[in-house]
Amino acid sequence: MTETVLPIVQAVEVSKTYFLGRLAVPALRNVSLEVAPGEFVAIVGASGSGKSTLLHVLGGLTRPTAGRVIIAGQEYGSLSDAARTALRRNRIGFVFQRFNLLPTLDAAGNIDLARHIAGRAAGDARWRDRLIELLGIGARLRHRPAELSGGEQQRVAIARALVNRPSILLADEPTGNLDSKNSAAVLQILSDLNRDLGQTILMITHNPAAAAVARRTLHLRDGEIVPDGPI
Ligand SMILES: Nc1ncnc2c1ncn2[C@@H]1O[C@H](COP(=O)(O)OP(=O)(O)O)[C@@H](O)[C@H]1O
Ligand SMILES: [Mg+2]
Question: φ and ψ at 168, to 5 degrees?
Answer without folding.
Answer: -140, 140
